[in-house]
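[Meeting: bench + compute handoff]

Bench side (C.D.) handed over the final construct sequence. Compute side (W.E.) agreed to return the predicted structure before the next meeting so the bench team could plan truncations. Sequence as handed over:
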Amino acid sequence: MALFFSLPLLCFALDESGCLFCHQYPGLVRLEHPYEPSEKLKILHIDEEGFSASTHGELSCKKCHATIKSVPHTGESKVDCTASCHKDDEVNEMIKDYPLSGFHKNEQSYIVSLNDKSSCAVCHRLYPHSKNRVARAFLNMHTGFMQCEVCHIKKSKFKNIIFEWRETQDVQFSGKPFGTYYDPQTKKTQKNQNYISRITVHILKNGKKINLTNRVDVKKARIFMSRKKRMTPDDADQALFFFHRDIEQKEASVACNQCHSINGVLNFNSLGFDEKKTKNLERINIKGLITKYKTFYFPSLFGF
């Protein structure tokens, strides 16, 4: 999906800094305040077609986001509408207090809610990744495509692991619906704005498929969350060890290469992706930013 290199010339010129290299992906989301109870989201997706059709669609990103020079650029949210445009005093006065928080709203798509009945969802937020500043939004993007266990299951603990699409789930989108609409029950694809399918983990045991998504601990997880603040550190650690007995954490670089590689654990072709899409997913260019760099500085292209 090297959108940066495959855009038509007109669109390429508008994105001379390659912003859509990252921001093209629906579901690119991070928490605004990850270590606070607030669920306020920072939506980072920009739909190219939607932006191009907007009032500011002929402007490059850097015309407004002039302070952004590198990745990650968390905190670089300052927008100066008068740096290159709106220099007229009268217009400047009109827009100085204009709220910019929803400026790209019509060009963004993300999941608002998902009917996830696993025990993971009892404790963890819909968008659970916050620690890695470079990768967190990309990791959160996978919420719409797979269950937690696809990345986090202790694969050394299980044999004969297979990955399949799970039945469709109730989901609410903001913006255009996205994802996969494959129904494994009917083996058909039917697009519906309130349903998606996600990849999940199974094992083969005695000729039967067993789903490894943890639903048996939901009640215990709810009890744990209701008592968590009153528990001693040792008791809390013991409970967390129990819930994560089949789960392991991974560095972002490990998680990326685990799936997005030629010999990765996911067989994209058997999951229904055609040959072109399979190659794109195995060689996806965005992986390099996450696996190779702590800070990536934008090159200056064409004199910009």
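W.E. noted at the follow-up: Residues 1-25+48-107+292-304 form one domain. C.D. will use this when planning the next construct.
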